[in-house]
Amino acid sequence: MGSSPSLTVPRRRPGSLASASGLSFAILGSRGYPSTYGGYETLVRYLAPYMLEAGHSVTVYCRDLPEHGERVWWEDGVRCVATRGIETTQLSTLSFGASASAHAAFNRHDAVLILNIANGYWMPMLRAARVPFAVNTDGLEWKRAKWSRLGKAVFRVGASFSARLAPELVCDSRALGDIWQEQFGRRSTFIPYGGEVLEDLGSERIRDLGLSKRGYLLSVARLVPENNVELTLDAIERLGTSAPMAVVVGSANFDNPIVERLEALQDEGRVLWLGHVSDQDLLHELWHNAAVYVHGHSVGGTNPALLQALGAGAPTLALDTVFNREVLATSDHLYAHDADALAGRITEVFGSRDTQRSLIEHGRSVVSKRYSWDDVCRDYTDLLVQLAHARVA
Question: Which tens digits make up the pLDDT trace of 261-285?
Fold first, then answer.
């Protein structure tokens, strides 16, 4: 969409253990640095500069080569290494994870942060090289409907390997940690994703799209079943002519019947479907000016898009799951998995500026008090420092 994404990351103050210097850390399992692709990439975009400022060297393993074609390069002090892999839906995570794990093991970093449980298959390489590592477990990947039966099995086995082999597991929500304890018998460290409270975002870009402040409903999600975009569309259709204009941000990288439905609703003038939007400034402005943001994610822990929406000042309604309830800590923001119930909540929020204001204030308070990037980056850095010192000892 239009202009380039904003990748500016504020400078951070290092925390307690993070003040130790001279350690070599690596991060593998994301698409690279800097990137705006998804939650992993957002974490890396904040964490890598933080660890640099704390005095450590940082390597981020990447999938894509830069324009100059070199496989090793530096971005703002971060060492980027592009390893080889097979860029397909089914094989990319496993193949890039294998090559990155082999490179990290050979280079013997002081500690490694692994993103994505599918990389559990390659953890024996790091253990053989005596390289300590922590694994971010993310969500319940083996429950995502987009994967085939084989794909789900691959992630489930990867989770099992991670539970058996990882020196430390990191879960981004306490509820997710409970699931890992129950299903795999492993305790984990709780470190959530982070968010920022953003003010004065303006409305110039949404006006260019023909939208007005507080004049539309917003959905931001990949078009996969577990994100329940179809439930939102069902609610809109229940409302008929009284439904607000709906803006949908998201795409699918596989055949999906919801695409035809979105195209039909767009032809009727009821939906503006923007597809995938990588421009973070535009996304923030869409959240900031929405009358109601409907968040339907159901599989996973602390969702990055939910925190972004709250921090940008979106009046947010979230599907009532154990994960969303943990983040929001109040039923005021929640809706049941029922199209009629959601339609009623949309009408309630869309028609009341007082309700919108209340949801905005609570959401921003949640982000500032419990999900600051300073705290998240400090906790990850402290954990990696502890792992590195434990190996030395």
Answer: 999 999 999 999 999 998 889 999 9
Is the pLDDT score of 37 beyond 70? Answer: no
Tally of residues, the chain: 393
Give CA–CA dist 357/159, Å, rounded.
41
> pTM for this structure?
0.85
Q: Residues spanned by CATH 3.40.50.2000 within the chain?
A: 19-194+372-392, 204-370
CA distances to 191, 383, 391 from 136, rounded to whole Å, are 9, 12, 20
CB atoms within 10 A of CB 3: 9
Fold of 204-370: Rossmann fold (3.40.50)
Domain covering 19-194+372-392, topology: Rossmann fold (3.40.50)
Residue that wins the pLDDT comparison between 146 and 193: 193
3-state secondary structure of 146: coil
Residue 243: DSSP 8-state: P
The answer for residues whose C-beta is within 8 angstroms of residue 346's C-beta and 6 or more apart is 217, 235, 236, 239, 243, 244, 292, 294, 317
Nearest-5° Cα angle at 332, 330 to 336: 100
Burial of 119 (0-12, 13-18, 19+ CB in 10 A): buried
